[in-house]
Design a protein that fits this description.
With about 160 residues, the chain is of the alpha+beta class. It has helices spanning about 1-20, 30-40, 70-75, 80-95, 100-110, and strands spanning about 20-25, 50, 115-125, 135-145, 150-155. The longest helix has 17 residues, at about 1-20.
Length: about 160
């Protein structure tokens, strides 16, 4: 929580100083993007926030400067995070229990060597956890793999 408050303050200060017409934010850090979009709306900044799609390696791992700190073995394991997001999305679309789907994903990640911070289904605007799939849902995940904290997400659009 503290990270996002500090980030929003810095972005607001930059917007006041620079007065951009638009700003680009990556979808990889979905929570940051959503918070900046809400801040721009709430504070009436005349800035268009453009979402940049997550870039992925061929195996599905979201590209990040942090990936360089993964050992070879960890790098081979890291794509499991996105794989679990995709599997969870499929299970939710098939109307499986949200609680069961999220529990299974957390368990699978832990078995693969991740220390899961969170794996949650949330409202894409409020970022609050939800217990039912909706047209505005997003799966959010963060997990430690060795010394590296990986984040990823998957929008659940109807």
């Amino acid at each position: 929580p503290g990270h996002f408050a500090g980030m929003a303050t810095i972005v607001a200060k930059l917007f006041h100083l620079i007065r951009p017409q638009f700003a680009l934010f990556g979808e990889k850090d979905f929570q940051q993007l959503a918070i900046v979009q809400a801040m721009v709306h709430d504070l009436n900044f005349p800035v268009d926030i453009l979402a940049v799609p997550t870039q992925r390696a061929p195996d599905g791992l979201a590209l990040s400067s942090r990936n360089r700190f993964l050992s070879d073995a960890e790098r081979a394991t890291a794509p499991h995070l996105y794989a679990q997001l995709r599997q969870a999305a499929g299970a939710l679309i098939a109307q499986q229990s949200v609680e069961a789907v999220l529990h299974k994903a957390r368990t699978e990640l832990a078995a693969a060597g991740f220390v899961v911070d969170y794996f949650a289904l949330c409202d894409a605007k409020s970022l609050q956890p939800i217990t039912q799939l909706s047209p505005n849902s997003v799966l959010l995940a963060a997990a430690q793999l060795g010394a590296v904290r990986l984040i990823d997400n998957l929008r659940m659009r109807s």
